[in-house]
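Researcher: Please generate the 3D structure of the following complex. Treat every line as part of one assembly.
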Amino acid sequence: MADTGVQGGEALLFLTDEQLRRGIEAMFFAYRGFTADPDKILEQMSYGRAHHRAMHFINRQPGLTVTTLLSVLGVTKQSLNRVLRTLIEDGLVESRVGRKDKRERHLFLTAKGADLERELSEAQRGRMRAAYRAAGPQAVAGFRQVLEAMMDPEMRRHFATMRDGA
Amino acid sequence: MADTGVQGGEALLFLTDEQLRRGIEAMFFAYRGFTADPDKILEQMSYGRAHHRAMHFINRQPGLTVTTLLSVLGVTKQSLNRVLRTLIEDGLVESRVGRKDKRERHLFLTAKGADLERELSEAQRGRMRAAYRAAGPQAVAGFRQVLEAMMDPEMRRHFATMRDGA
DNA sequence: TTGGAAAGTCAACAACGCTGACATAAAATC
DNA sequence: GATTTTATGTCAGCGTTGTTGACTTTCCAA
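Model: Done. Output below.
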């Protein structure tokens, strides 16, 4: 019998520490794979994972403000600013002053930025697609359910907002 | 209808970029939650996530060698050494010279080390348990399948070794 | 006996988190 | 209109954790 990491099975789960530890290890090992492909591309440039994350969410919600991005990424403005500055300097991201509220900066990917984002995303999606195909649709649904249950409430809110559109 | 992120559904999966990007975001947000609880404990001490990871795997395979741990964690020996040195100095980890091969160092948690490992692990397992319960056994099985499919082959090997026992 | 593997150490560096302090502009409020 | 709050940007400094490169010691095995 294959190790599903789950015993019991009806309504109640008997979750042993061993099963939970297996899940923890799965998350650890899988996350390494998850970031491996874009990391390989990034290391050749002077960019890191933080640049990728910023570009990902700017692509997802074009025109989002710095404050929103800050909250989504869960880092300090100083940390994000270092990343954003280089992306803007290099012409990958454009920062437009808000029309209604001129304090706000709305972020957009330039054509060049969108190109890099696509390249990084494609590398990452390739692995994700392969994993989804290998595991099958039912597994994918479960995967998403567990991940969502694992999030902090604030992150889950961001996750939902992302779905519903900016 | 709830957004399962999966359309199609029988044998073939129609995976849109949107669905794959949703999966990527789920991994990102979930991983933040995954590490949040132990991180909170660690930040009060002078330890970081790297110390936690090392202790986790030493606990799982008591007596594993430095080289093995290096390979499991996927970092350089210099990076691991810095972490291990502090753990040994602080009496959390014991390093024993190999009996057969005296070049090898076999790593063990001390009683004190096991205590901290348990505290960190319990924090992390608490969230994992809640997520598993919320999602249900079928979802958990799928979660594990997708994660395993996402790993690099070498990581998958380590993951399997962990299951079968050292 | 010699080659190479395992381990440890030193130096230097980079990415990316953090805090604290401070400046500016503009919106919001009193 | 004056004051407060918000959004943003910037500077300095620091900590963790990753990297490379170079070098040494120990010791198994061919």
